[in-house]
Amino acid sequence: MKLTTTNDTLQVVLGSSVTTNQLQCLTTYKIYTSTTTTDGKVAIDTNNTTDVTLAGAPGASETYEIQNINIYNKDTVPQTVTVKLDVSGTETILYRGLVGVGEVIGWSGEGGWKNTTTSTPTLNNRYVLSGALYETFDRNLCDEVNTALLSSGRLSLVAIYLPAGTTVNSISFWSATTAAGTPTNQIFGLYDSSFNLLRSTTNDTTTAWAANSRKTLSLTSSFTTTYSGIHYLGLMVTATTVPTIKGNTAKVGGQLSAGAPSMGGTSNTGLTTALPATATAPGTVTTSFWGCVS
Q1: DSSP for 84-110?
Q2: Looking at the domain covering 141-293, what would its CATH class be?
Q3: Strand partners, 234
Q4: HEC states along 183-219?
Q5: Cα separation, 290 vs 274, whole angstroms
Q6: Tens digit of pLDDT for each residue in 165-223?
Q7: DSSP E strands, 20-166
Q8: pTM of the predicted model over 0.90
Q9: In what side-by-side order are the strands of the sheet with 156-162?
Q10: Domain ranges of the chain
Q11: How far apart, in whole angstroms, are the C-alpha atoms of residue 101 and residue 79?
Q12: How far apart are CA 250 and CA 236, in angstroms?
């Protein structure tokens, strides 16, 4: 990651004000000119919902090559952290995610983003959509193929990693080239690692779901995760024609994805106006589809 112009600034901001302590941030980088190479660093605390500069802007004849970024949550509650590149006021989100109490997130050129406290990669936050917290997988790695995974009244599940303390308010999926035709029920759900329903969304019933469009449904009430690890997002539609969903190319065999913990797959059938309290564990998994929580 390089800052190459006097308009480039690396920034951090929190999703809300801290309860007790600001988060501690440290950025290290190389400073290159045409003739010299020196080391630079910035050690600074966050400032609630106000942007704070982690590095930048380079001088007129300088280039900053970011080596490492570390952010430590010294507060007494989890905090949503956003790291972004600001170029003359145009912002690009580099990372957004929840950092637990006492946890450290870090970035390096070799390893990308990682929760260095648990050694958990956080790649599903690298290019997260605006407003989203976590994705089933990095949308930049999504093939966006026309995934025909749905059947009317059948629950489909896909794995998502969520840290403890993540407050989920809504779930989103993105249709592919086929729109929903005459839908009657549209419900998403959040399940735990044992396929127990934690929250379902409101039923979007007959509302249109056009082709190539994101549908976001709110949970019936917000849910805060109690453990760090695999959860599942559920998707169920009853319709004359079910939509196709943006996902990845179908796997050959699928046995690897079906290994514990399962990466998801098809589940209960014959559903109408509600999701099952406990979903049937998927079998062989050949499909993967994109989804996110906010």
Answers
A1: EEEETTEEEEEEEEEE-TT-EEEEETT
A2: mainly beta
A3: 157, 189
A4: EEEEEEEEECCCCEEEEEECCCCCCCCCCCCEEEEEE
A5: 22
A6: 788 999 999 999 999 999 999 999 999 999 999 999 999 999 999 999 999 999 999 99
A7: 24-32, 37-45, 52-56, 63-72, 79-87, 90-99, 104-108, 112-115, 120-121, 134-135, 145-147, 156-162
A8: no
A9: 197-200, 181-191, 229-241, 156-162, 264-266
A10: 2-126, 141-293
A11: 8
A12: 20
pLDDT digits over 22-66, tens only? Answer: 999 999 999 999 899 999 999 999 999 999 999 988 888 889 999
The alpha carbon dihedral of 80, 84, 86, 90 has a sign of negative
Token pair recorded at residue 123:
């790649």
Tokens representing residue 19 in the block: 């309860």
Asked if omega into 60 is within 30° of 0 (cis), the reply is no
- In angstroms, the CA 97 to CA 105 distance is 9
Structural contact between residues 234 and 267, judged by C-beta atoms closer than 8 angstroms: yes
Q: Which residues pair with 213 in a beta bridge?
A: none
3-state secondary structure of 139: helix
**Number of residues assigned to the chain:** 294
Place of tokens 């501690």: 24
CA distances from 155 to 158, 184, 229, 260, 290 (A): 10, 15, 21, 19, 15
Q: Which two tokens stand for residue 197?
A: 């329903």
